[in-house]
C-alpha cells in the first residue's frame, strides 16, 4: 500500500516542478524584461509605413505550377514601429559554434540603464538572454570592457547570426535604415549604425551605394558591451519567412534603383557549384539542357553589386538554385521569369514574395534532398529528369522564335 502512495506523491511533485519550470521564463519575462512601448526610458514611434497600400498585382498569378510548395512561415510580429531607448546598454553575443559562419558573427541584447533587457518581437529569447548575462556577469555588472558612446546609434538587423549573407544584408540591414528614416523625425535619425558586418568588399559597396558612410559604421563585433546615449531599434518583420510588403520599394529607394521596363532577352542560369551548401548535385545535366536553349551560365562570386544589377536587369529568364543570389531579382524588369530550385526541407517563401512585389513571374521547383543528414538549410539537392524537362518546357513557353523571352501575360 505504501509503494503506490509514494509513487503518487512522486508523480505529483514531478508535475509541480515541471509546471514551475515551464512558468519560470514567463515570470522572468514579466518581472525582469521590459517592453519598449512601456519603458519610461523609451520613446515609441508607431509604424506608419506597413499600413499603407502596397498591393501589387502579382505577375505570377497566371503562371503557377500545378503543385505548390507548403511554404514555411513564422508568426508575424505582434506590433511594429521604432523604439528610441535612452542610456542603453548593448550586450553583444557570440553564437553557439554550430551557428557560427564567421568569427565576427554576433547578436545584441538591448538593456535599459538598469540592465533590464527589452522584450519585443524578434528580440533574443528569455533563456538565451539569461544564460548570456549570467555567463558574462563580470563584464556587464561591473562595466568591464564597456565602451561609452555619446551619440544616437541604430541597431540594424539583429535577426540572424549570419553576418555574411547577401539576402539578410539587404532585407534586414539596409531595409532597416529605410524603415527608420520613414518612421522617425529627422531629429531622431542616428549618427551611427551598428551593423552585423564581416567587412567584405560587397558589403562596403552596398553601404556606399545606399548612402551609409564608412565613419558611420560600427561592426557588431567591435565591442563586447556598449553604453550609448540613445539606441534606435526598428521592430518589424524580418528574415526569410515573413517579408514586409514594402521590402522591394525600400531596397530600390536606398540603392537609388529605378525599375526598367523589359529585359534585353538574356537567358541566365546562376550556378551554385562554388557554394558550400544547397548545390544541385546534377547541375551539369541541367546546365547542358539549358545551354541548348540559349542560356548563359554565371557564378556571382566576384561580381560587383553593379555587375549583378546589370545581369539581372538585362535577363528575361533566370534559373537558379535557392540562395541569397536570388535577392538580385529586385533588379529584374516586371514580367521577368525566375525559376527557383528549393530543397524539400527548406521551403522559405522569401523569393516568392519578393517576386510578387516586383511583378516577376515565379516558378518554384521543389527538389529532393541529396542526403538525409544535412538538415534543410544545408541540403544539396537532386533535380529529377522529369523536373529538368518541365523546366525546359516552361522556358519554351516564354521564349519566342527569335530566341528572346516573351511576356505571355499579354496574350
Automatic annotation (TrEMBL):
It holds the Pfam family Glyco_transf_61. The keyword ATP-binding does not apply. The lineage of its organism: Bacteria, Pseudomonadati, Pseudomonadota, Gammaproteobacteria, Oceanospirillales. One of its GO terms (molecular function) is glycosyltransferase activity. InterPro entries: Glyco_transf_61_cat, Glycosyltransferase_61. Signal peptide: none annotated. Keywords: Glycoprotein, Glycosyltransferase, Transferase. The keyword Glycoprotein applies. It comes from Halomonas cerina. Residues 166-339 form the Glycosyltransferase 61 catalytic domain. This is Glycosyltransferase 61 catalytic domain-containing protein.
Amino acid at each position: 500500500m505504501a509503494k503506490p502512495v509514494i509513487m503518487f506523491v512522486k508523480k505529483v511533485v514531478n508535475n509541480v516542478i515541471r509546471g514551475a519550470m515551464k512558468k519560470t521564463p514567463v515570470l522572468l519575462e514579466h518581472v525582469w524584461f521590459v517592453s519598449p512601448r512601456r519603458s519610461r526610458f523609451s520613446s515609441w514611434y508607431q509604424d506608419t509605413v506597413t499600413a499603407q497600400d502596397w498591393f501589387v498585382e502579382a505577375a505570377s498569378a497566371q503562371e503557377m505550377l500545378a503543385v505548390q510548395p507548403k511554404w514555411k512561415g513564422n508568426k508575424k510580429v505582434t506590433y511594429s514601429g521604432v523604439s528610441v531607448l535612452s542610456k542603453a546598454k548593448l550586450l553583444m553575443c557570440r553564437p553557439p559554434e554550430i551557428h557560427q559562419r564567421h568569427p565576427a558573427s554576433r547578436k545584441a541584447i538591448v538593456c535599459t540603464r538598469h540592465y533590464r533587457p527589452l522584450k519585443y518581437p524578434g528580440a533574443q529569447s528569455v533563456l538565451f538572454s539569461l544564460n548570456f548575462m549570467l555567463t558574462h556577469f563580470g563584464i556587464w555588472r561591473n562595466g568591464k570592457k564597456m565602451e561609452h558612446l555619446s551619440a544616437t546609434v541604430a541597431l540594424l538587423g539583429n535577426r540572424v547570426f549570419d553576418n555574411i549573407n547577401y539576402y539578410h544584408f539587404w532585407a534586414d540591414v539596409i531595409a532597416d535604415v529605410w524603415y527608420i528614416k520613414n518612421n522617425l523625425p529627422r531629429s531622431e535619425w542616428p549618427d551611427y549604425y551598428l551593423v552585423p558586418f564581416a567587412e567584405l568588399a560587397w558589403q562596403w559597396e552596398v553601404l556606399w551605394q545606399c548612402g551609409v558612410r564608412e565613419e558611420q559604421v560600427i561592426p557588431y563585433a567591435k565591442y563586447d558591451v556598449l553604453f550609448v546615449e540613445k539606441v534606435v531599434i526598428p521592430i518589424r518583420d524580418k528574415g526569410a519567412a515573413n517579408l514586409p510588403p514594402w521590402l522591394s520599394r525600400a531596397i530600390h529607394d536606398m540603392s537609388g534603383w529605378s525599375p526598367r521596363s523589359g529585359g534585353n532577352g538574356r537567358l541566365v542560369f546562376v550556378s551554385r557549384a562554388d557554394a558550400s551548401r544547397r548545390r544541385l548535385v546534377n547541375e551539369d545535366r541541367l546546365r547542358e539542357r539549358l545551354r541548348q536553349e540559349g542560356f548563359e551560365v554565371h557564378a556571382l562570386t566576384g561580381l560587383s553589386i553593379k555587375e549583378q544589377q546589370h545581369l539581372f536587369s538585362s535577363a528575361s529568364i533566370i534559373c537558379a538554385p535557392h540562395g541569397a543570389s536570388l535577392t538580385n531579382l529586385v533588379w529584374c524588369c516586371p514580367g521577368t521569369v525566375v525559376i527557383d530550385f528549393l530543397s524539400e526541407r527548406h521551403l522559405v517563401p522569401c523569393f516568392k514574395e519578393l517576386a510578387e512585389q516586383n511583378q516577376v513571374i515565379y516558378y518554384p521547383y521543389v527538389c529532393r534532398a541529396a542526403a538525409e543528414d544535412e538538415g534543410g538549410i544545408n541540403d544539396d539537392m537532386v533535380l529529377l529528369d522529369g523536373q529538368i524537362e518541365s523546366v525546359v518546357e516552361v522556358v519554351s513557353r516564354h521564349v519566342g522564335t527569335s530566341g528572346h523571352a516573351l511576356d505571355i501575360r499579354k496574350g
